[in-house]
Amino acid sequence: MQKRKSTLGKGLGALFEQVEEVKRTEVHELELNKIIPNPEQVRKDFDEEAIDELAKSIENHGLLEPILVTPRGDKFLIVAGERRFRAYQKLKKKSIPALVKEFLAEDIKKLSLIENIQRKDLNPIEEAMSYKELMDELELTQEELAHEIGKSRSHIANSLRLLKLDKSVCEMVRRGDISFGHAKILSSATHADQIKYANSILSQKLSVRDFEKLFKEDKKSSSKKKNNKNTNKNMFIEEIENQLIEQLLARVSVRYKDGKGKIIIDFSSDEELNRLINYIGRDDLHYL
Questions:
Q1: Which residues are catalytic?
Q2: Number of neighbours of residue 116 by Cβ within 10 angstroms
Q3: I need a labelling partner for 243 at 20 to 30 A (CA). Which of 30, 58, 211, 279 fits?
Q4: Torsion over CA of 140, 142, 146 and 147, rounded to 10 degrees?
Q5: 166 three-state secondary structure
Q6: Can you give the pTM of this predicted structure?
Q7: What is the pLDDT of residues 167-182, one digit of tens each?
Q8: Distance (Å, whole) CA 277 – CA 186
Q9: What 8-state DSSP symbol labels residue 65?
Q10: Residue range 50-86, pLDDT digits in tens
Q11: Which of 178, 160, 159 minimizes the C-alpha distance to 169?
């Protein structure tokens, strides 16, 4: 069965319209004890120091943007604005300005994800998770999501690759010990090498540029060792491989001998396969 193509007019675009429509509704003052956080919130890490700073800003300048909630019995579920809600709790406020609107249950998570990707303070892992969940929820391709949120396709692809990092390395990125730039390079290494390189980044305090240089030198050294083992690859084939890897953002191996051979493209998920198919441009092909 073919994967259903998402209709953006009834998907992400329509949700953005809902968000804009909500901003024009009346603001209510709701008691904090009537508000409950969204258990499906993609953001799992709340920087307490950042929330303290937000609380001070709110205390000095007021709340610039109300939170968004939807009724749940006699309470209200947060759709967007949990950081603002937490800041109000720190200030020991009794109530908070809120926009109240009824939403379909299936739209709440999507709206929360949209609100997340519009914020600037997500860590790279949370950002990647938001992209992945939004693509899954609305059946979007990377190209479609990139177009809708104003990001490049390569940024979306590089971000999603972080979700394949080793768990320990992923946690380093989540904590901010390793930057997105470092992580983007690490994602093309094996899990064992990711851990080794991540420890080097921390112990040697390597900048992204320094790490990229080290990574390329190691790759070149590894390539030379392969050549010393009498591999049949020549410089021309190796250059083709490197170009394909750069274009496809995937591991590619070219087997060539006497004018014949094959190109092998590695993928590790259904999403990765569909991304490669879409990139190659075969609209008539779909993952079954």
A1: 82
A2: 22
A3: 211
A4: -60
A5: coil
A6: 0.55
A7: 999 999 988 899 999 9
A8: 24
A9: S
A10: 788 889 999 988 888 888 898 989 999 998 888 899 9
A11: 178
